[in-house]
Amino acid sequence: MNHIQQVFLQSIMKQQQQEKQQQVKQEENGQKQNIQYLQKQQLLSIIQQCQQQQQPIQQASKSPTLIEIQNQVTSFFQKIILQKQTINLNNVLDQQLPYFLQIMGNLVIYGLENCPGEKEIVQEIISQYKSNPLKITMSCSLFQTIGLLFRSQLVYYDQSTKYLANFLLFRDDFCDIFFNTLYCYQITHGQSFSQQMGFTQIHQMIKKTQEDVWTAFIFKMLSQQQQKMTKDMFLLQFNQYTVSMNNFFTKSNLIMDLVEQSVKQTSKLHNDQIFQEYLLIMGSFKATTQDFLKKATQVFFEESNDLDLLQFSSNIIKIHKQMNCQILFILPMLFQLESQYLDHLVSNGIQDQQPVKNSSNYYLKMIEKLKNKCVYNGEEECNCKKCQCIRRNRNSAKESQKKKREALEKIGPLQDEYDKIQKKVKSLEKENQVITKLLLDVFRHPSLEKLASQFIEPLTKILADQESYNIDEC
Ligand SMILES: [Zn+2]
């Protein structure tokens, strides 16, 4: 990255942070604002309905399109949110789906069943959806409204339903990312186009039956559903991705909240695996984001200025292998993990534990530690407190390294002298050994044997001294 790009990105990051901060504030009054927003929406839809009623002849001759039916379901759900009613769901689906999809499918059908007007067509759609829920598709406003229903905890199926309020797909800050990446265009009645997100696409993200599902998802996300991805686009979108993910790890989320509530000793093994995986994903996000960005910018745009899906796919495999991590797949991985966790909670039942802040909760400790880690890891680009601190530490470490080196340089000549002395000592020792041997041989001579008793004692002492001297040296 050159300097201008850096400055550019920094200003974007700052702006995004400010926006996020504002968003957090907004979320605090979220309920109020949502209702205000919905009141406006409802007003709009009422106006639309009025307009439709003014053209009864045209409307009667034409059966409603899918999008028109979806709009009716949407406004039905919006009324429920405004009136704060609770929807009690029963399972009407034959197929077994991941928990969140199961509930969402039942909710869509519930909406359709309460849809006014053209019963025949709606019934047809309902029976189609019941036998194959993967055929369900949603318009943007229908999906957003469903997300809001879950966030407001107005849907009840079983005791696990409340956890959907914090599920990635329904979160205020992620639902648009998912929709904008997963939608396809659908033509209804050969005339009007509409953007639809299908259960099939969502289901594939969880099941990952094809290896390239996540690659395609990330490519669509980073290229904003364009055929090609330019370098500028990549830098911009990747940064946005980093900001969103950072926000995800910092604020409360489904797994994090349950980690906080569970005590390590009592959490089952499977929970441990999920927490471990969460920790791994979070850790690799915090540790490798910047390295990845540098490497990816080089590798992606080595040969040309833009990438198509195929080039992107082969490059991404290469980089992930080289870096031994899957940094780009963090969002799909978390999506899958949260879904697995929900399924686990449903099948194992939830022990409603008292929220315990246990100091022995290893995962919580690790997560808290990681939370405080900045993805920039002390690089010059970032001016946050953590990075400043890391830079200070690095500088002081460098300083002490420098001092050590200088001290070693001064020691140099002394070392030479020491080595010389050491050599001298060694040669003296050898001489000593030779003399000792000689002396002992001499005293073994028959003519000197009688004298030996006088000399043997001092000689033994000399030998002993020499041995102890050798031990000291070691
Ligand atoms: Zn930083």
Tell me briefly what this model is.
With 474 residues, this protein is mostly helical. 70% of the residues lie in helices and 5% in strands.
Structure, explained:
Helix content is 70%, strand content 5%. The chain has a three-stranded antiparallel β-sheet. The protein has a two-stranded parallel ribbon with strand order 1-3. The longest helix is centred in the C-terminal third of the chain and has 60 residues. The protein has three domains: 177 residues, no CATH class; 166 residues, no CATH class; 76 residues. The protein is mainly alpha-helical. It has 18 helices and seven strands. β4 and β5 form a beta hairpin. The protein is elongated. The site of zinc ion has 6 residues, from α17.
Unreliable residue runs: 49-61, 354-359, 469-474
Strand content: under 5%
What is the overall number of helices?
18
- Rounded Rg: 36 Å
The chain-level mean pLDDT equals 81
Structural class comes to mainly alpha
Strand order of the largest sheet: 2-5-4
Ligand catalogue? zinc ion
Biggest beta sheet summary: 3 strands, antiparallel
How many strand elements? 7
Domains, number: 3
Distance between the termini: 55 Å
Overall shape: elongated
Write the layout of secondary structure elements.
Blueprint lengths: L2 H26 L1 H25 L1 H6 L4 H18 L3 E2 L10 H15 L5 H13 L5 E3 H12 L3 E2 L18 H8 L1 E5 L3 E7 H9 L5 H11 L5 E2 H20 L3 H8 L7 H32 L5 E2 L1 H15 L6 H19 L13 H10 L13 H60 L4 H25 L1
Parallel strand pairs: 1-3
Antiparallel strand pairs: 2-5, 4-5, 6-7
Helix pairs in contact: 1-11, 2-4, 4-7, 5-6, 8-10, 11-13, 13-14, 13-15, 13-16, 17-18
The structure holds zinc ion.
